[in-house]
Amino acid sequence: MAVFAIYGATGHTGRLVTAELLARGKDVIVSGRDPIALAELGQARVMAAPLDDPGALRALAEAADVIIHCAGPFGTTGLPVATAAVEGGCHYVDHSVEVHFVKQLFDTFPERAQRAGITMLPSVSFYGGLGDLLAGAVARDISDIDRVTVAYAVHNWKMTHGAVETARLLFADTDRIGFEDGAPRYGFVEPRNAIFAFPPPVGPRAMIAPVPFPETVTVPRHVRTKAVEAQLTARTFEEEQAFSSENVAADERAASEFTITAQVLGAHGAAAGNLRGRDLWLAAAAASVEAAVRLTEGAAKSGVASAGEAFDSTEFLTTLADRGIFTLELPEQK
Q1: Does the predicted TM-score (pTM) go above 0.85?
Q2: DSSP calls for 73-107
Q3: Of 17, 94, 212, 268, which is least packed with CB atoms within 10 Å of its CB?
Q4: 8 Å CB contact between 186 and 71
């Protein structure tokens, strides 16, 4: 039986990932930096691995078939765990939202991952990963694509401590990565006022545009387009509880509501698709678990890939929708 290691298992996402794996009858190792907190999880297999202990991290990788990395911010935590996965010869899936870290994996790890015979999938999470998959599913029958917009409408998001720290880093970063005119674009981008027309019942909403999510790096890897942009409802960060909910109970944190729309505009047509649901944290956990399970079954070639590049986007999202993680609306395929 394949062994799944969860790094950052004591956090909210890590606990959800662990629960998803156990519900599917998988063999898990819980891991992270704090051995006392890990022991309190009550799991049979525990391996503490501080980020500054390469030996412990490699031992974790050697004991597992795949690591699901849940402990951000990934600008700090990502490289040690990803390096251990390559050196230990185990697949790697993470929940990173930081676009610079995602790009670093694509730039520096492909040959190492191929030599190790493993697959590395960054940003298989709510922001970034689901948008990447949805964009791929919507774009599949459209040619000469001018622009892909991935728009997130999120209400009642209660962020964890790690999410708060990540959000602060993302929006303080002036070295943005965009995708325009068929090529990456680097440097500061002044956010603009935008209105995005979500389908009813959400409707048109004021947006932060662009937001520095990974779609600008991941989507062009499998969708031929001239431009990619991610947007987020402005109200998401205006809601009082967003930055003041680090210590709420898990059931309160599950009360978020979301719609993700991927809009694809081409020279000869346009299309859009939607994901709608509750509890974005659960959606993120379910996506990473589904990806990790597929890697252990040999569903993707070795190297570094986005979720939409590694898997059939429509089939992947349909699998999650059939499990009740969200509802999925896609244009009819030709």
Answers
A1: yes
A2: -HHHHHHHHHHHHHHHT-EEEE----HHHHHHHHH
A3: 268
A4: no
